[in-house]
Amino acid sequence: MYFQDRHEAGQLLAEELDFLKGRKDVIILAIPRGGVVVGYEVAKALGAPLEVYITHKIGAPYNPELAIGAVASDGGVVLDGNLTAQLGVPDGYIEAETKRQREEIKRRMTKYQGERPPPELEGKTVVLVDDGVATGATTLVAVRALKKQKPAELILAIPVGPPDTIAGLRREADRVVCLATPEPFWAIGRFYIDFSQTSDEEVIALLDELRKQ
Question: What average pLDDT does the segment 1-30 reach?
Answer without folding.
Answer: 97
